[in-house]
Write a structure and sequence with these properties.
The complex is a heterodimer of chains A (624) and B (565). Chain A contains 23 helices and 20 strands. By secondary structure, chain A is an alpha/beta fold. The longest helix of chain A has 20 residues, at 536-555. Classes of the chains: A alpha/beta (624), B alpha/beta (565).
């Protein structure tokens, strides 16, 4: 139990020494993606093999080192999810990709025991072998600050977190800084909320600090509901202590003694890692009453969501914690004055809190040196879609879209042609070829009619139908609308209905105008952010790809060839020999003709199942 | 000197801000009525219908109900964008709503109709996806139809915030959202106490008072049945604009005349029954006081919604509730007994401002000779419907007096209909000072007024009686908690409807300032009564030697049932 600053410094150097003494480290990626790929099986196998070969290995950092060991650790998400499961080997900094259970023996015998690199497990960049993680273009072009611990340390161990200097920002804030100084540091750094709003964090904390009400709260929004976004998940899974540290610093300078982490229930691994982290921190006295012998007390609690995207909205989130129906409420009153349980509340996103310790440790100038002036720092993005390198990345704010897609992302996959990027999930707009030079920061994107949102980036090529993209996101939003206000509840339903008609070939002239009219009403009059941004995918896809909508409506044709209901299956009369083989395969008797003459598919009957296509020995049947 | 620092601009006009809670109130000051569905001045701000949106000088759109007026703000209430938004919102609501207005009981009394007409909606460009009629008919007090709900949330807020009953709330999410009881049970199986305030605030026909008057037409048509009626005090002052009356105008004479025309053979005033209640309840009260029982206070029992609320939530308090029946039931017992010797069938109707009385009339505890003495309870709304259906021009009909043998009542009886009335009537009875000044003194002791919780200290002999008067079940609940934590009262009057029976759910809809006028109408009626104290009603006093002899407890008192899970 740590009772003083000295205790903390001592224990830190003890664990640092132990960590340093490890002659090798195996960091197995244990983020949800690699776990799904079998990384925990690999972890167990590696451990088993080392025990069999009598290699001293340690799973946890001990206080005393009897002899150097090989550390085997479950780390946070390494980020290159496309080629997982991933293992990093220290001290060399080698990265092994697409590891299988069968590879474990070789890894132990060759790499761990003899320090030999296994080429076939390394990433290959156009034939060139990249031994080290830092050699890989995907990583070279990133600036992993917030994500630095993910892949570097054991995500389940407070000892390791301390060993690499963890909780030193909290220590500095607690013992060397006044509340005002902490807030000035955060304010002057220019940190803006990473959840999507981009609100200046220091200003928010100052507003809470100013409130005279003695009971205050700190709440971390870990609800990350955007489909395809997993930045917050990776941070919570991979570096939970950093999140706790950020919350503790917020509590310290704003006068809150109780914090809540609201994590969506669909992230069980994040919940369990955070829970373990809270237990570990409480056990050694970094959380609880009179921390490290000071007057500061701070307690943390985890509340799980229950499957509602709308509970990522601040007032719906606090309602949910209070046990009420998760519906946003009108503002005023604002959360900083009357938030959780009607008390002044600091409500910030996971990634925002994760930035706090970096700023306190490294200073204002360091933070400001990254990214543009009004949008300093880095941003984590979840890069998905038809791109070569999918995964979790972190780049300085202001990196251009083109750099992200082509330099980090490795460009389009399977020879696809770049068409657009959906940024910001269901609340976001799409960016196209003309936007490739657009810097990714809050203000530039707002000017372009899009928003960074939480950081999901879905890359699309010419085979993606933009109308379907709009329909997909509107379907999501409609499902997740809480139902309170008329424009969102009814408006999203109607917009979805129109889009569904369009993609199934039943669009009529006037639909685009009606969509835009509804979009305007819903955006302008909805009560909360969900409704206000729900129509963005529609508006931006119409703006950039109006011709696709028109083709669906006027020609009943999907230019990308994606909308199944608009597919047409035709028999090429030049190739058809009238052999009748296809007619037998048709479940609805849509094919007819005279024997030895070209046959014809009745488009009105055809259900586009495609069963006829492989039956033709002359390859005369095609999808057009 | 106008305060020029606290000024904002509305539609180009400077308006002084004087502590208005929101822009909606301030805009009313410049004679503009913003359209709303979900706004209710007595409920929390919900901000869901988005009809009251306004546009500021930066082109931002805000809801007027939830925006606090600030000096220097500039807004417009009627721009092209705002008109488009309001029309779109109406179109969206209408496309999901039952549009069979001609067969709806709320035809002509519906806010959705009003606003659709106001904004000239002439097209609904979306397919009609109105919910299947989902009628919950289980309650005898109200009828709920999901088909007609626009999810404004007013019913949920009044049930939870004002009445503290919480029988209904939102269920499900998004476009599948609906108002329902827990686990979608029928209303009759829920904590509902029948107060009907949900129906009183519902802007459409989704929750309405249960209409029973078709039964009465049938009874009136039957030559072998003698149909009698009693009319509650609160009804006579709420006949309202629909029939050409002013709010608070005493129309009792006209109502009696109409009833005579329709075929009611005997029409009485429930105030007579109230006199009986005063006599019985005063006895009960004085008995408890003299016995020095620790289990004070004595709670009144004439409000059936309060009784159900007590039975479901505070059964431990039932021994403190007066065993007196309500005026309606006491009077019905007497009228039933009076009619018993006759060979003809007897059908007794009570006209009440209330929905809960419909439930009270079915209580087993009141059964006499195998049936409830009240055959049907109709609300003021239903009375108005019957008058309209009959074609009688109410404003022109000449008033008539109530019938005998029970045609006298006192001012004490008539004030039962307003909050504080029962208490004032009881105090007039128990006070040993029967002078005129004593009467005036009682009325100034704080028993009158529309506040939800009133307290009064009344001298009685060498004691000082501590009285509390609450209206609105939320206020009742708060007072009960106070009592449980040690605060002492001798007598507590509870009315479930805020403001008392004049604002019962069965009354026609009235704006907040109309409510006080109704109460004032009853006090005016009291002024015109020669007898002010219930014991001065010689006819009623005589009953003790006649129909009530040896049967006081059986006919006028009751017991209560512990309800709930």
């Amino acid at each position: 139990m740590l009772k003083s600053r000295e205790d903390l410094d001592n224990i830190r150097s003890v664990y640092a020494k132990t960590l340093e003494s490890q002659k090798a480290k195996i960091l197995v990626c244990a983020g949800t993606g690699c776990v799904a790929g079998g990384s925990l099986v690999i972890y167990d196998r590696l451990k088993e093999l080392m025990e069999q070969r009598n290699i001293p290995c340690s799973v946890e950092l001990e206080k005393e080192v009897h002899h150097p060991t090989v550390g085997i650790k479950k780390s946070g998400c390494h980020g290159f999810c496309e080629i997982g499961p991933l293992i990093r080997i220290e001290p060399q900094g080698w990265l092994y990709v697409k590891v299988q259970e069968e590879d474990c023996e070789e890894i132990i015998d060759q790499t761990v025991l003899n320090g030999v690199h296994i080429e076939r497990l390394a990433y290959q960049n156009d034939g060139e072998i990249c031994k080290k993680q830092d050699d890989i273009p995907f990583y070279k072009r990133q600036t992993r600050h917030v994500l630095q611990h993910c892949g570097q340390i054991d995500a389940t161990s407070i000892n390791e977190y301390l060993a690499i200097g963890g909780y030193s920002a909290f220590e500095k804030a607690l013992f060397e800084m006044t509340g005002d100084e902490i807030i000035h540091e955060i304010t002057d750094s220019g940190l803006r909320g990473r959840g999507g709003g981009g609100f200046p964090v220091g200003r928010k904390w100052e507003q809470v600090r100013r409130q005279k009400e003695p009971q205050k709260y700190v709440v971390c929004n870990g609800d990350e509901g955007d489909p395809g976004a997993f930045m917050d998940r990776s941070i919570m899974e991979g570096d939970p202590h950093n999140v706790l540290e950020g919350m503790m610093i917020a509590g310290l300078c704003c006068g809150a003694n109780q914090g809540y982490l609201y994590v969506r229930a669909e992230y069980p691994l994040a919940v369990s890692r955070l829970k373990a982290a809270i237990e570990q921190a409480t056990e050694i006295g970094l959380l609880g009453d009179r921390i490290l012998g000071t007057d500061f007390s701070f307690h943390l609690r985890i509340n799980q969501g229950a499957g509602a995207f709308v509970c990522g909205e601040g007032s719906a989130l606090t309602a949910s914690i209070e046990g009420k129906r998760g519906m946003p409420r009108v503002k005023p009153p604002r959360t900083v004055e009357h938030g959780l349980f009607d008390k002044p509340t600091v409500l910030n996103n996971v990634e925002t809190f994760a930035n706090v310790s970096l700023i306190i440790n490294n200073g204002i100038e360091w933070f400001q040196s990254i990214g543009p002036e009004k949008s300093p720092g880095t941003k984590a993005f979840a890069l998905t879609g038809n791109i070569v390198n999918t995964g979790l990345i972190e780049v300085p704010m202001g990196t251009t879209l083109g750099e992200v897609i082509f330099d980090v992302g490795g460009g389009m996959r399977d020879g696809g042609k770049f068409k657009g990027v959906q940024i910001g999930g269901p609340s976001g707009g799409c960016l196209t070829e003309k936007d490739l030079d657009l810097p990714l920061d809050f203000d530039s994107l707002k000017k372009a009619g899009a928003m960074i949102g939480s950081g999901g980036l879905v890359v699309m090529d010419d085979k993606n139908c933009m109308v379907e993209v709009a329909r997909f996101f509107m379907n999501f939003t409609q499902n997740e609308s809480c139902g309170k206000c008329v424009p969102c509840r009814e408006g999203t339903k109607r917009m979805l209905a129109i889009l569904e008609r369009i993609v199934s070939g039943q669009g009529v002239e006037g639909d685009i105008e009606l969509l835009l009219e509804l979009a305007d009403t819903v955006s302008a009059t909805s009560l909360c952010g969900l409704g206000k941004t729900a129509a963005l995918p529609i508006v931006s896809t119409i703006k950039n790809f109006r011709s696709e909508y028109e083709a669906h409506i006027r020609e009943k044709r999907c230019p990308a060839g994606a909308c199944s209901k608009l597919k047409k299956i035709e028999i090429d009369a030049a190739l058809c020999k009238g052999c009748t083989k296809c007619t037998k395969s048709c479940p609805v008797n849509a094919i007819s003709g005279k024997v030895k003459d070209p046959f014809v598919i009745d488009q009105a009957k055809c259900i586009k199942c495609g069963a006829c296509i492989p039956t033709c020995p002359f390859h005369a049947i095609r999808e057009v | 000197m106008k305060n020029l620092d606290n000024v904002m601009i509305i539609d180009g006009m400077p308006v002084e801000i004087n502590g208005e809670k929101n822009l909606l109130e301030l805009i009313r000051k410049v004679n503009i009525k913003m359209p709303t569905f979900c706004y209710h001045s007595e409920l929390s701000i919900y901000g869901a219908c988005r009809m009251c949106v306004v546009e500021n000088q930066r082109g931002e759109i805000e809801a007027a109900c939830s925006t606090v007026p600030k000096s220097g703000m500039e807004i417009r209430t009627n721009t092209e964008r705002l008109r488009k938004y309001r029309k779109n919102i109406l179109e969206l609501l209408l496309s999901n709503h039952c549009r069979d207005c001609t067969t709806c009981s709320n035809n002509g009394k519906c806010k959705l109709q009003d606003l659709a007409m106001r904004f000239g909606i002439d097209q609904v460009r979306f397919p009609n996806t109105a919910a299947e009629p989902k009628i919950d008919d289980s309650s005898v007090c109200i009828t709920k139809d999901a088909h007609k709900c626009i999810l404004c949330g007013d019913c949920v807020r009044v049930c939870n915030e004002v009445q503290n009953v919480g029988a209904i709330d939102f269920a499900h999410r998004g476009s599948k959202m609906s108002i329902s009881c827990a686990f979608e049970r029928p209303i009759a199986d829920s904590p509902c106490v029948g107060c009907g305030q949900c129906a009183a605030v519902c802007p459409t026909g989704a929750i309405v008072v249960k209409y029973d008057f078709h039964k009465i037409w049938r009874a009136l048509d039957d030559k072998n049945t003698k149909v009698t009626a009693q009319i509650a005090p609160a009804v006579r002052v709420a006949m309202g604009k629909e029939l050409g009356m002013e709010e608070g105008e005493n129309a009792m004479g006209k109502i009696v005349a109409v009833f005579h025309r329709l075929g009611f053979e005997e029409v009485y005033d429930t105030s007579t029954g109230a006199d009986l209640t005063v006599l019985e309840e005063s006895n009960e009260f004085l008995k408890r006081l003299s016995e020095g029982k620790a289990d004070m206070p004595l709670f009144t029992s004439c409000c059936p919604a309060w009784i159900q609320y007590c039975e479901k939530n505070y059964p431990e308090l039932l021994p403190n509730v007066s065993t007196c029946r309500s005026p309606m039931e006491m009077f019905a017992s007497v009228i039933h007994e009076e009619h018993k010797p006759s060979a003809r069938k007897h059908y007794h109707v009570a006209v009440m401002p209330c929905t809960a009385k419909k439930f009270e009339a079915t209580r087993d505890e009141f059964v006499l000779d195998g049936k409830n003495p009240v055959d049907a309870v109709i609300s003021t709304q239903e009375l108005i419907q019957m008058i309209k259906e009959s074609g009688i021009i109410f404003s022109e009909i000449e008033p008539e007096a109530v019938d005998m043998p029970f045609g006298t009542s006192t001012g004490a009886g008539v004030i039962f209909g307003v909050t504080g009335g029962v208490t004032e009537a009881v105090l007039r009875r128990v006070s040993s000072d029967k002078s005129k000044t004593a009467l005036a003194a009682i009325s100034y002791h704080g028993v009158r007024g529309m506040e939800g919780i009133k307290e009064a200290i009344i001298p009685y002999g060498d004691r000082r009686l501590k009285i509390a008067i609450v209206s609105g079940l939320g206020n009742a609940s708060a007072l009960i908690e106070k009592i449980k934590s040690g605060t002492h009262y001798d007598f507590v009057e509870v009315m479930a409807c805020p403001g008392g029976c004049v604002n019962g759910a069965g009354q026609p809809f009235v704006a907040p300032d109309g409510k006080k006028q109704r109460g004032d109408g009853l006090y005016a009626a009291d002024k015109m009564c020669s007898t002010k104290r219930s014991e001065e009603n010689l006819l009623v006093m005589d009953m003790y030697n006649g129909v009530l002899k040896n049967r006081v407890h059986e006919l006028l008192h009751t017991n209560y049932v512990k309800r709930g899970e």
